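User: I'm putting together a small comparison set for a docking exercise, and I want a reference complex before I start. The sequence is below, and the ligand is arginine. Could you produce the 3D structure with the ligand included, as structure tokens?
Assistant: Of course. I'll restate your input first, then give the structure tokens for the complex.
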Amino acid sequence: MAQLWGGRFTKETDKLVYNFNASISFDKKLVKQDITGSKAHVAMLSKQDILTKEEGEVIQKTLDEILEEVLSGKLEITDEYEDIHSFVEANLIERTGDTGKKLHTGRSRNDQVALDMKLFTRDEIDETDELLKGLLNTIFQIMKDNLDTIMPGFTHLQKAQPVTLAHHMGAYFEMFKRDRDRLKDTKRRLNLCPLGSGALAGTTYPLDRDYTASLLGFDGPTLNSMDSVSDRDYLIEYLSDLSLIMMHLSRFCEEIITWNTNEYRFVDIDDSYSTGSSIMPQKKNPDIAELVRGKTGRVYGALMSLLTVMKGIPLAYNKDMQEDKELSFDAFDTAKGCLALFDGMLKTMKFNKENMRASAAKGFTNATDAADYLVNNGVPFRDAHSIIGRLVLYCIEKEKSIDELSLEELQNISDVFKEDIFEAVNLKTCVDKRLTIGAPGKQAMEKVLNIYSEYLKK
Ligand code: ARG
């Protein structure tokens, strides 16, 4: 048991207590951030003449060595240390003696861990953003290839109006674009440096907090030391960002699972992203989509857990906050894994364009356009709605679609119908005429694609 305290204790810590309290098994993930933060702290201490230049250099060099050895596997982070901070400091002291003992001057593990977690989260945000950008590129490509791929658009999971695959994919483009925006926002708010806040009340040493903040790429120091050591808002915000990303992925997965059924056959998930059944030889299951949908619950869980952990904590640092780590690390990895897997699945998925079009043709998705035809020929919309309602009923009886009726049959229902009704209810016409920005008409979609193309270049 190597720990950083003990002077005021007369008894050894109970073994179970020690294990319950220790965080090394999971905070070892922060080794890089911990050493980066310590190096900046030491650089500042030297600059401020709190440590000599030589002492600073020895500590910095040794910290580099420790990190290198950990990364290469030469030095193992074992359970004999309470946490990652103790591990780094103990190893430093072992190698540099009294010089190493000066590292923690003007610092507490409270501001240290607050910094480590912020640095870690900041990198995570960047990685997640890259994955989102990759996914957006995949979606963009599918959009470009499918401006003319007609499919039914649904409301209530009932066929509603014809759209295109490009348009449907564009909805997800918007969602993931907003997700990236949220990440940017979270990162901006996160980017203030807590180092130098001490345990809770700052320190009496003449620290230059602006300097450490700038060394570590922050926009500046945090402005209240009590808040600095007990703020986990940025983690909650990021978990909420991840929850939204997962919610979007999960909705997308739900659609893919539906589209992949025998009943729809809109898509074929590639063999490399499907799994089989141990008993039913015919099965090809969309397990990856189902797992992503399922793991969404896990990420929501992390968000709810941390909100609950934080709700009763008085100022300033309390040990409850150590509970932020395992659930965050798990949620971070889960979301990144899901993004990568989902992107791969989408890239390799085959869209059965003929089935999509046939489904749109069968489901009276052009009924609104038929009503609009009557309106354009002088029938008030409410009357047109009711006429087309009767027309649909007739079609259902005859097992035909609107465009499969003869002009005579159409005119039996309303004498307003003329030959040009067939052009008006043609699915391509129905889509092409929807030209307001944001609608599926090709020219409208092309404008949007130009905006997306510029966006993806940034
Ligand atoms: N392992 C702790 C955490 O994750 C580090 C801070 C410990 N501070 C303390 N005063 N015990 O929160």
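The chain has three domains: 15-105, 110-358, 362-457. The radius of gyration is 31 Å.
User: Thanks, that's exactly what I needed.
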